[in-house]
Amino acid sequence: MIVRELVPLGKDRFRIITDETFAFVLYKGELPLYHIEPGMQLDRQLIQKIYDEILYRRVKARALKLLLQRPYTTKQLKDKLQSGGYPEELADYALDYVGSFRYVDDDLYVENFIRSQMGAHSRKEIEHKLSLKGITRETIDDAFSRLEEAEELSDDHAVVSDLLKKRRYDPQNASEKDREKQIAYLVRRGFSLSTVLDVLKQLDQ
């Protein structure tokens, strides 16, 4: 492949663009080490040399630094690395590395996420949030099953009741308008209408 362009990224980094695709990012001082310039032939042997000498180490360090800041799902971390200038091949290498130490573990991430959300959100809402993070339906269902077996999940009825208390809903003095407002809020949060009405009925007694 032929190097077509060196695109500046800030003051000292460059994105190397070839006639086939984006290749990788190097610092300004690294370009002359490999004679990287527009028009040069960038063969697989040279790319592998750059990977071995610089980029494998750098992508691992970047992945670890990101994980020190906060947890990531596999998809989130891969997207973050690729948006930072690492091609898919390098991002996958870093994921294999951190995954070998369970620094990225989607099953554990999902379980912890469910635990943190289940006291204030419906299962439907939690599932939706996880799907946006790139978690598969199978992984989500398996995590809920494990937590159900361990009896760690809150029943939606209990969650609705707690939310109504936090919202200072007074069943004895609430107007019909306020009641409808609470119902609409809870249904928007993903709780089924039947569950919400059941809880309100219990509170009315």
Write a structural description.
With 205 residues, the protein is mainly alpha-helical. The protein has helices at residues 44-69, 74-83, 88-100, 106-117, 123-132, 137-149, 156-166, 176-188, 193-204; strands at residues 3-9, 13-18, 22-27. 59% of the residues lie in helices and 9% in strands. The protein has a three-stranded antiparallel beta sheet with strand order 1-2-3, with no helix packed on it. Helix 1 (44-69) crosses helix 3 (88-100), helix 2 packs across helix 3 and helix 4 (106-117) crosses helix 6 (137-149). The protein is elongated and about 80 Å long. The model has no long low-confidence stretch (mean pLDDT 91).
Key features?
Arc Repressor Mutant, subunit A; 3 strands; three-stranded antiparallel β-sheet; 9 helices
Please specify the SSE layout and strand pairing:
Layout: E1 3-9, E2 13-18, E3 22-27, H1 44-69, H2 74-83, H3 88-100, H4 106-117, H5 123-132, H6 137-149, H7 156-166, H8 176-188, H9 193-204
Antiparallel strand pairs: 1-2, 2-3
Helix pairs in contact: 1-3, 2-3, 4-6, 7-9
Number of distinct helices: 9
Q: Runs with pLDDT <50, length 5+? A: none
Q: Shape from CA axes?
A: elongated
Largest sheet: 3 strands, antiparallel
pLDDT averaged over residues: 91
Q: What's the structural domain tally? A: 4
By secondary-structure content and strand pairing, the structural class works out as: mainly alpha
The rounded distance between the terminal residues' Cα atoms is 76 Å
The amount of beta strand, in percent, is 5-15%
Oligomer: single chain
Rg, alpha carbons: 25 Å
Number of strands: 3
Sequence of strands across the biggest β-sheet: 1-2-3
Helix content: 55-70%
The H-and-E topology, N to C, reads as EEEHHHHHHHHH
